[in-house]
Design brief:
It is built from no helices and six strands. By secondary structure, it is an all-beta fold. A hairpin with an 8-residue loop joins β1 and β2. The chain is globular.
């Protein structure tokens, strides 16, 4: 997953997310990012955002799936 300013600039990888991240969604307040990390299961992860450029802490698993689940939910 990459970050780029709405006004343009150089795309940069989003620290802490890793590979296989899909379907990003930003919270209404703009301080949380939720995404699906496609691996062997469909766990749902979130990361708190310090500001528009920096993460606050490491990604945290919100939902741990057992096996392959097509429609995980919290």
């Amino acid at each position: 997953m990459w970050r780029i300013s709405a006004t343009g600039g150089t795309p940069r990888p989003l620290a802490g997310v890793g590979e296989g991240a899909h379907f990003p969604s930003i919270s209404r307040s703009g301080d949380q990012l939720a995404y699906q990390r496609v691996m062997r299961s469909d766990d749902i992860w979130r990361i708190d955002l310090k500001d528009e450029k920096h993460a606050r802490g490491s990604p945290a698993r919100m939902l741990a799936a057992r096996g392959f689940i097509r429609r995980p939910h919290v």
